[in-house]
Design a protein that fits this description.
This protein is an all-alpha fold. It has three helices and no strands. The chain has one domain. The chain is elongated.
Amino acid sequence: MENLLEFYKRTWWMWLVFIILFVVLALYVMPLFWFFIPGLIGYSIYFGAVRGSEISGKP
């Protein structure tokens, strides 16, 4: 959990860009937007938990 928070502290700007893009998609392409939400959540957890530990070098 700690390295997950550390990962988000280092990449907050990237998630902000994603959120802005998803808001734009929600306004213009509403049905497709609902397919991206589970993907964003799943990829976020995967990247923070699995890849985040690889990046920081912690087991």
